[in-house]
Amino acid sequence: MRCYWKRFLMTLGSLSLFLLLLLLVSLRTEEDSFAAEESRRWAREVAMQQIYSERNGQNFRDLWNSLPPINISYGHLAGFPNHKKKYLAVGLSSIKRKRGNYLLETLKSIFQQSSNEELKEMVVVVHLADFDQAWNSKVVKDISRKFSHHVLLGHLIVIHAPQEHYPPLQGLKQNFNDAPNRVQFRSKQNVDYAFLLNFCANLSHYYLMLEDDIHCSKSFFTAIKKVLTSREGSYWVTLEFSKLGYIGKLYQSSDLPRLAQFLLMFYQEMPCDWLLVHFRVLLAQKDVIRFKPSLFQHNGFYSSFLGTANKLKDDDFEEDSLDLPDNPPATIYTNISTFENYNPNKAYSNVDEYFWGKSPSVGDYFTIVFAKPVELTRLRIQSGTEERQSDVLHAGEVELGEDPAQIKEKVECSSYVKLGRFENGQFESKDIDTKIHSAVSCIKIVVTESQKEWLIIRSISIWTKQSKA
Predict the structure, then answer these.
(1) CA-to-CA distance for 342 and 348, rounded, in angstroms?
(2) What tens digit of pLDDT does each residue of 221-251 get?
(3) Average model confidence (pLDDT) for the chain?
(4) DSSP code of residue 261
(5) Are 311 and 323 in contact (CB under 8 A)?
(6) Which of 47, 53, 239, 360 is the most interior residue, by most CB within 10 Å?
C-alpha cells in the first residue's frame, strides 16, 4: 500500500494544475473573521476558474486513465455482494459520534419506505469507517440483529476499510483557516467516501449517496427511477434529490471509480461537498440538476464532528413522493421567442427552473412530442411564478395529437383534439384515459389571445398509464 501512495503522489506532482490548486486553497490569513471569509471565498472562486478550464479538464481525464485501481482489502462485516447487478446501490458511511447515533433509524427508514419489489432492485451498503474496532463490532451486531432479513436477502451489506489503507491524516495543511482537528475530520471523511464508492462501483447501474442521519420519503426508489426514465438519452453527471450536503446525490456507477480517485486526490484540500461540485463541472455538467420535492430529509440533531448541534432541514422535502410525474422522454418545440437560456426543456422536468418566453401572439405554440406514444392519465401545466405572477398564459388551450411526422426541422402531429382551456394561467386534467382511448404522441399548448406580458411555463407534469408486467 505504501508503494501505491508513493506512485499516486508522484503522478499528481507532475500536474501544474495540482500545484496551482494547492497554492490557491492554502491561502490563510491572520486578519479578522470577515477578511478570513473573504479570502476563503476568493480562493475557492479562483480555484474553480482554474480547475474548470478545458486544458485542465483533459489533464484530469488523462490522470484518471493512468492511475491504478484502488486496491483495498475490505472487511465484510455483514452480507456479501450479489452476482447480479442491481439497479441502484445506496451508500452511506458512518462513524462513532460524540452525541447521538442515527444509523439504525436511517436504515429503518430506507427499508420501511421501500416495497419488496423495490428492494429486489436495490442494495444498501454501509461503510463503518471508524478506527474503533470495538464500536464497529457493536454496531454491526445491532444491524445484523435488527435487519437480519435484509442481510440474508442481499439487500444490505456492511463493510470496513482497515486503517492501514488510509493516507496520512496527521500534519495536514490547514486550508480555509480550519483548525487541525477540523482538517483531519473532513480529510478522513473524503477517504471514507472514496473507499465506499470504490466498493460500490460494480454493484449496480446507479449509485445514491446518503448520510447516516436521514429520513426517506415513501417509495423514493420509484421516484428516482421515474426521473431516470424521463432523462433517458440526456447527459448528466450528478442528479440531486436533496439540497443538503452529500444527501441524495445520484451518480452513474461507471463514474464511481473516477470519483473515488478524485476524492483521494484532493482528500486534504477541501470538504467533500466542494469536491463533488468540482467533479461535476470537470465532467462538463455546469448546472445543478436538482429535483423537487426532495426525497430525503436530514434527521440528525448532533453533527458527527465534535457533536455540535446541526439543525439543517430541507424545506423542499415531502414524505410521500409517489405523486411525482412520469414525464416520458420527449422533444420540445416552440415558436415563442425564448429569453436568454430559459429554454423550453426546463419546463418539462422537476428541476427548479422554467421556460421564459417573450410576449406570445395568438396562434403561438409550445409542443411536446413523445419519443414513443403514451397513454395519458393526468396532465398539469403551471405558468407564472410567485415573483412574476403576471407572466402567466392569459388565454390558451391544450390539444392532444396523433400521427407524428417530420416537417422541415421539427416533428408535428397531423391530427389534434382539444383537451381543455387554461384557467387563471393554470391547466389540469385528470382521468384522461377515460376520455381519450388511444395513445398520444403530442401535447400542444396553443396561445388563443396575444398578450403584452411575457410567458413563464413553470412546469409540465405528465402521468401515464403503466403497462402491466
Answers:
(1) 12
(2) 999 998 898 788 889 999 999 888 789 999 9
(3) 82
(4) H
(5) no
(6) 360
3-state helix, strand, coil in the chain (%, to 5): 35, 25, 40
| C-beta separation of 35 from 29 below 8 A | yes
The answer to whether 356 touches 422, Cβ cutoff 8 Å, is: no
Q: What is the DSSP letter of 337?
A: P
Whether the Cβ atoms of residue 221 and residue 114 lie closer than 8 Å to each other: yes
Give pLDDT tens digits for 80-104.
Answer: 888 899 999 999 999 987 766 789 9
Q: How far apart are CA 87 and CA 117, in angstroms?
A: 12
Query: In whole angstroms, what is the distance from residue 408 CA to residue 231 CA?
Result: 25
Q: Are 238 and 284 in contact (CB under 8 A)?
A: no
Residues 6+ apart with CB under 8 A from 133: none
| Polymer length in residues for the chain | 469
Take residue 358 and report the three cell numbers written for it: 417573450
Pairing of strands 156-160, 122-128: parallel
Q: Which amino acid appears at position 29 of this protein? A: T
Cα(385)–Cα(377) distance, integer angstroms: 25
- In the numeric block, the cell 409550445 is attached to 366
Name the helix (H) or strand (E) containing 198: helix 180-200
Q: Where are the beta strands (DSSP E) in 189-322?
A: 204-209, 214-216, 239-240, 249-252, 296-298
H or E element that contains 282 = helix 272-282
Report helix angle 256-265 to 180-200, nearest 10: 160
